[in-house]
Amino acid sequence: MDEQINNFAKTRQDIVSKIGAAAARKLLRDALYFIAVGANDIISLSSNVSLSHVENIKYLDNMISKFKSQLMRVYNLDARKIAVTSAAPLGCIPFERDKFSIDDCVPHVNELAMLYNVRLKILLSELTKHLAGSIFIYVNSYTTLEDVLQNYKSYGDDHINHSLPLPSILNVFFSAL
């Protein structure tokens, strides 16, 4: 994400040079920013099944600490309204299910995503409380996608792809992650 923030800083500077600092600050502070991160790190962590629960927690805490620094950089570039998606039920993506050779979701991968999400929600709440004028919104994609997995028929998908037993609507979504 550091590279994306560097790109945003360059874009911000271009905006300042075109419309002036005051107008740019207002424009940037009124904009809504949408950030989705964490999935690749969690998938990478899940590959190392020899790590203890304590080591997993330490890794997730380090992820959140780095993400906090990155969000502070975005805030310091005048972003104030920031929506951040939670990690999805990553144990249900075809890559993870194939890696662990199971037909259902991989429980320990989903547990890592949930542990990350708890920390993320706390972080966003703390940032909103301590950074003047900021609003950090936690977008719970985990629960939303879990509902689709469990209730796929109510979403108009009445068959399961038997080669990858997930609702076909999610096979399309997860292949895009």
From TrEMBL:
<dbReference type="InterPro" id="IPR001087">
    <property type="entry name" value="GDSL"/>
</dbReference>
<dbReference type="GO" id="GO:0016042">
    <property type="term" value="P:lipid catabolic process"/>
</dbReference>
<comment type="similarity">
    <text>Belongs to the 'GDSL' lipolytic enzyme family.</text>
</comment>
<dbReference type="InterPro" id="IPR051058">
    <property type="entry name" value="GDSL_Est/Lipase"/>
</dbReference>
<dbReference type="Pfam" id="PF00657">
    <property type="entry name" value="Lipase_GDSL"/>
</dbReference>
<keyword id="KW-0378">Hydrolase</keyword>
<dbReference type="GO" id="GO:0016788">
    <property type="term" value="F:hydrolase activity, acting on ester bonds"/>
</dbReference>
<keyword id="KW-0442">Lipid degradation</keyword>
<keyword id="KW-0443">Lipid metabolism</keyword>
<dbReference type="InterPro" id="IPR036514">
    <property type="entry name" value="SGNH_hydro_sf"/>
</dbReference>
<protein>
    <submittedName>
        <fullName>Uncharacterized protein</fullName>
    </submittedName>
</protein>
